[in-house]
Amino acid sequence: MERKTGLILALDVTDRLEAVEISEKVAGYVDAIKIGYPLVLSTGMDMISQLSKFAPIIADFKVADIPNTNRLICEQVFKAGADAVIVQGFTGHDSLEAAVKLAKEENKDIYVVTEMSHPGALDFMQQVGEGIAKMAADAKASGVVAPATRPERVAEIRKIIGNDLSIISPGVGAQGGSASDVIKAGADWVIVGRAIYQAEDPAMAAKKLVDEMKEFI
Amino acid sequence: MERKTGLILALDVTDRLEAVEISEKVAGYVDAIKIGYPLVLSTGMDMISQLSKFAPIIADFKVADIPNTNRLICEQVFKAGADAVIVQGFTGHDSLEAAVKLAKEENKDIYVVTEMSHPGALDFMQQVGEGIAKMAADAKASGVVAPATRPERVAEIRKIIGNDLSIISPGVGAQGGSASDVIKAGADWVIVGRAIYQAEDPAMAAKKLVDEMKEFI
């Protein structure tokens, strides 16, 4: 994924028309559009190819299965036109490696969730976040997903993974993270959802974020 | 889910016609058919309703997201005609509760993965398997998924969750677990894939397993 603006749109809508309209408006300001299962299951896998006309698509499917199933899922997603898949890391090294191997063959990207920021993430995930980040580096994934709500954690994760992997970072905007703070802390991309797609003028909201980050990119 | 035979088919194929043909053949011997994303992404969500004519459908999507996204995914899956969804427990109590709450409203089932049996499950999952089983019981999920390859673990998990939750147990057949051993250890259903759908006569293979378990059900 090429970094031009440092901005990724989290397109958390479930309606096809709305998804297309927003993507069209912000296409000039984002390096990628991240979509999830709620949109794809309610519209169909062709939603991926339709949106890929506007920007590279990151399928945030948080894939969390055995190696062979992880591979089969990523195969379908890449075939549909996505450029990257987000996978969970807690299912271990072989599940991750199966996804990364396929992605490398197809010149695509795998991003690994290291930690999440909802309350339940404290139950089991928080204590293994750094181990997952290290595993992602060992497996030579393209990058990790680390929450922008805690820039100090982004800086920690950066130390663990080094500079070969990217950090994409959700939580900017509605969830309170600041785009420039997260980039300064070591993230390569910020992922922004509601603050763009619920804005009266999504393009203007995206442009404002891009301008804010410009000097730190 | 009602237990008649104790057998669940893991329909791990990706072709629509093959999926329908196998389901038709074994419909009389299974209490449910478990399908995953590889099949649904390659055919479409209508695959669920098509197969639900043969048996209740368990969507093994290993849902592993934040509470709101978990709810949105389960909504789509139930709407498509599935009777149950398998979720990961790793993402914590609130993610699980969001899925269970919706399932109860719609009179559907949520099964929680407590541990998996691929090598990578030792990296992060094994040490929290019992904690996840306890969380599943606290959240009043319908049941848990625990591997048949280790009947002694099934017995441990049964002690933790008590008798209000079901145990559905994959790993019988090609992976080496014995159906009757797992039922004796405390599982309510065994989940069998290749040993049925790759058999020359899938109906006969299913019948044989049903007969083997009959006296322990």
From TrEMBL, chains A, B:
Catalytic activity: orotidine 5'-phosphate + H(+) = UMP + CO2
Keyword Lyase among record annotations: yes
GO cellular component terms attached to this protein's record: cytosol
Superkingdom field: Archaea
Catalytic residue positions: D60 (for ompdecase activity), K62 (proton donor), K62 (for ompdecase activity), D65 (for ompdecase activity)
Quaternary assembly: Homodimer.
Record-given protein name: Orotidine 5'-phosphate decarboxylase
Native source organism of the sequence: Methanolobus tindarius DSM 2278
Name of encoding gene: pyrF
